[in-house]
Amino acid sequence: MLSCGGFSYEKIIVENLKYKYPDTDQLALNDVSFEVEEGEVIGIVGQNSAGKSSLCLALTGLIPHFFNGAYGGKVLIDGIEVKTSTITDLSQKAGLVFDNPFTQMTASKYTVYDEIAFGLENIGVSREEMIERVDWSLKMMGIENIKDKNPFDLSGGQMQRVAIASVIAMRPEILVLDEPTSQLDPQASEEVFRVIQQLSQEGITIVIAEHKMEKLASFTDRILLLYEGKQIDFDTPQKVFSRDDLHDYGVVPPIFTTYCKAMGMKNKKTNTYPVTLAEVSSLLGGENNEWNKS
Amino acid sequence: MNGIKVENISFSYTEGQPVLSNIDVHFRQESTAIIGQNGAGKTTFVKLLKGLLKPATGNIYVNGMNTQEYTVAQLAKQIGLVFQNPNDQIFKHTVIEEVMFGPKNIGQSTEEARQNSLLALEKIGIVHEADKNPYDLSLSDRKLVSIASILAMKPPIIIFDEPTMGQDYLGKERLKKIMKDLRAEGVLVLSIIHDMDFVAETFERTIVMNQGKIVLDGPTREVFSHEQLIRDVYLELPHATQLGKQLGLKQTFLTVDELINFNRKKQ
Amino acid sequence: MTLYVKQDSLIHEIDPITKVIYAFVAALLPYILPSHTVALIVLVISIMLLVVGKVFRKIIPLIGLSLFLIVSLVIIQGIFRPDNVTPLFHFGPIIFYKEGLSYGLLLMLRVINLLCAFGVLILTTKPDDLIQSFIQKGMSPRIGYVIGSVLQLIPQMSATIATIKDAQRSRGLETEGSLLVRIKAFLPLIGPVIMNSLISTRERSIALEVRGFNAKQKKTFLHEVHTYKYAKVIQAVLILIFIFAILWRIFL
Ligand SMILES: Nc1ncnc2c1ncn2[C@@H]1O[C@H](COP(=O)(O)OP(=O)(O)O)[C@@H](O)[C@H]1O
Ligand SMILES: Nc1ncnc2c1ncn2[C@@H]1O[C@H](COP(=O)(O)OP(=O)(O)O)[C@@H](O)[C@H]1O
Ligand SMILES: [Mg+2]
Ligand SMILES: [Mg+2]
Question: Its GO CC terms (chain B) (predicted)?
Answer without folding.
Answer: ATP-binding cassette (ABC) transporter complex
